[in-house]
Amino acid sequence: MWREVIRTQDPARLRMPFTHLDESVGDYIFAVPLTTDTGAGTNTSPITIAFSHHYLEKMPYAVPTPWSKRSWPFTSSGYWPRQTTLTWDQLTNAWNTYNFKWNDQFFAAAFTQNLVGDNNGFIWAIGGQNAGNAALPSFVKFGRAATVDGMMRGLLARVYPFVTKFNSPLNVTARLSDFAIGPATINAIASYDQSLPEGQYMAPIYRRGRYLDLEFGTSGPSQPYELSGYDIEIRPGGRR
To answer: What pLDDT does residue 26 have?
Structure first.
């Protein structure tokens, strides 16, 4: 994976790469300017993609470390401790208007918030909200892997995202190819209802290929999602 990142790094923005450690979820994030970014070749254009490693995930012996690619339209990152506690009686809007997850970090003072800044001078909180209470549209894309063994075609029948319950739909994009490198030739997009209980619904795909990469995201701002993983149903489809 890193060989491809180095090969496609934008030489006009070599001073821009940075890392961010999000200890609240166990993510190590590497932001790198690429030649595929919008505005590549201009030394003032922001980074748009970052690579994430969930360092708390234990992998079996000889299994490669998983990396995912995510939208990252930011130029810098940092931390800031919460100054005051937040309690239930301070809520002023309807419950379904809040797009953050309620857990212990919202009830404790001095809990470190993960902050990022964009090219327009705005500051955003990772997993939270900006000053206008709007969440950015975003996606996460996982690396390409063989559906079966790299020689046999597999039928990707269903994708089961492991998500937190939200009202907005989640877009599941499957890209399949018969080759380990190069562009995907078979594409399918399915909508997943995040409001249903986990494990009781799936995203139907029904496309064949030797290799697969999956992408998850929503269509617009203020449509949050929280993805902790996924499962897939693959059916062997022969060698032709």
So the answer is: 82
